[in-house]
From TrEMBL:
Gene Ontology MF, one: arylsulfatase activity
Short name of one Pfam family: Sulfatase
Domain Sulfatase N-terminal, chain residue ranges per copy: 27-345
Family assignment from sequence similarity: Belongs to the sulfatase family.
Top-level taxon of the source organism: Bacteria
The UniProt record lists the keyword DNA damage: no
Keyword Signal annotated: no
InterPro entries listed in its UniProt record: Alkaline_phosphatase_core_sf, Sulfatase, Sulfatase_CS, Sulfatase_N
UniProt protein name: Sulfatase
Length: 480
């Protein structure tokens, strides 16, 4: 009898030990998401005049993706896609949500944070949220244990383009004071450019503190920097340090932030068990001229379906697991991050349909084949404007923001925003990354093949441009 009890106790202890071992072996996850950082804004992606030693180090020690796309080229939809693994129009997200927006991300949607939390992770968010401006549509209600940051973009505040208080700026809505939230409640307010200049440093120091306080257990940290979205601001330690003015100073401070995160991981001896993802939510807001970034030579920018709007930098570092210094040219989207992280952390998948496809095998070198071949470019509320198949991109007729018709702004002031009619065209991104030469007449059979993909998308998610209602759409939260 005693022998049986001993065996039973040993088995229970062994099982508990295995469970604990499995838990501690789950990789930590850090996502650093920049706001409006263009494809070409750092040295690993072609920038000149701005030293970025820490972006360089991350690329040298990790994998640099060259065909990584945001699901949409604007803040709220892109962030919804990242956190839920869904096309944002599938879950009802559109545009840049304002402080008085009547919609938000539905709390019923599962996120990276909520799914990893179920798997035993400690979760935290720092920086810009932009998926709802008040509780219950703030991070604590989507799986994050803590949140400190802005509810929306840093330009949604009652300050003019010169940095002076103003109730209503020409071309802008009248906004309330910009709150800095701790959880669901304001801890402070961002009232001046000097307050803006403190944001990158504040969020970075809090990120390092979170890492140090949670180094013994699996954690997920989502650090969503408000910069380099306008209005630009850099702390005194970085002002005047670059050759490209204030924009360069801001990039240098973001580079410092990346370095502080990597130093913390190395110092606490958890770098080899931490997946670090560095990315951007969409391309540069080009109408701000020298206060906007670089699309890396791709056509268009933020708010367009051209590659300058959706193709963004992405570096993934995981020492010992991801090949150091590797470059990957496969088609990947920010929707693919969620299923990839769930596979790598052995966490349960979401219950509802998602659009992301895991690229874990590609990341770990177990496969060199692209898991994704098709990507749909939606914009506005639910307008299907283009589809990509491998290296081919079929642009559908639509109206778009144009950055080539007007003079861009300068020193924090925007240029005019005009629109242009876009005709149907087929581009070969392998030979024409700038999307300049329409080759649909040379490849009519490819156009027909891609129009089948278009029809599948319209049946699934709908298309406002053709009046189609999708069969598999979910509703956003309605804000009273």
């Amino acid at each position: 009898m005693k022998t049986g009890l001993f065996i039973l106790s040993f088995c229970c202890f062994f099982a508990a030990g295995r469970a604990q071992t499995t838990k501690t072996q789950r990789p930590n996850v850090i996502i650093i998401n920049m706001d409006d950082m263009g494809y070409g804004d750092t040295e690993p992606y072609g920038m000149t005049g701005i030293p970025t030693p820490n972006f360089n180090k991350a690329a040298k020690e990790g994998m640099r993706f060259t065909h990584f796309n945001a699901a949409q080229a604007i803040c709220s939809p892109s962030r919804a896609a990242l956190l839920t693994g869904c096309y944002p129009n599938r879950i009802g997200l559109r545009g840049a949500l304002s402080p008085d927006s009547k919609i938000a991300l539905d709390t019923a949607e599962e996120t990276i944070a909520s799914l990893l939390k179920k798997a035993g992770y400690k979760t935290a968010m720092l920086g810009k949220w932009h998926l709802g401006s008040k509780a219950p549509n703030l991070p604590l209600h989507y799986g994050f244990d803590s949140f400190y940051g802005l509810p929306y973009s840093n330009d949604m505040w009652p300050v003019d383009y010169e940095g002076k208080p103003q109730a209503a700026v020409a071309g802008k809505k009248s906004y309330p004071e910009l709150p800095l939230l701790d959880g669901d409640k304001p801890a402070d307010y961002v009232r001046t450019p000097d307050d803006q200049a403190m944001l990158t440093g504040t969020f970075t120091r809090k990120a390092v503190r979170f890492i140090e306080n949670n180094k013994s257990a699996p954690f997920f940290l989502y650090l969503a920097h408000p910069m380099p979205h306008v209005p630009l601001a850099a702390s005194a330690a970085f002002r005047g340090k670059s050759e490209l003015g204030l924009f360069g100073d801001v990039i240098m401070e973001l580079d410092w932030s990346v370095g502080e995160i990597m130093k913390s991981l190395d110092r606490n001896k958890i770098a080899s068990n931490t997946i670090l993802i560095i990315m951007s939510d969409n391309g540069p807001w080009l109408r701000f001229g020298n206060h906007a970034g670089s699309s890396g030579g791709f056509r268009g920018g933020k708010m367009t379906i051209w590659d300058g709007g959706t193709r963004v930098p992405c570096i993934i570092r995981w020492p010992g697991k991801v090949e150091a210094g590797s470059v990957n040219s496969n088609l990947i989207t920010n929707m693919d991050i969620l299923p990839t992280l769930l596979q790598l952390s052995h966490a349960a998948p979401p219950e509802k349909k998602i659009d992301g496809i895991s690229f874990a095998d590609l990341l770990l070198g177990r496969s060199d084949k692209a898991p994704r071949q098709v990507f749909y470019y939606y914009y506005n509320e639910n307008s299907l404007k283009a589809v990509r198949y491998k290296n081919w991109k079929l642009v559908l007729p639509h109206t778009s923001v144009s950055y080539t018709s007007d003079i861009h702004g300068k020193d924090g002031f925007p240029g005019a925003a005009t629109r242009a009619e876009v005709k149907m065209a087929l581009y070969d991104l392998a030979h024409d990354p700038g999307e300049a030469y329409d080759v649909q007449q040379q490849y009519p059979e490819l156009v027909q093949k891609m129009l089948v993909f278009v029809e599948e998308a319209r049946a699934d998610m709908g298309d406002d441009l053709t009046g189609r209602k999708g069969k598999n759409l979910r509703q956003p939260a309605i804000v009273n």
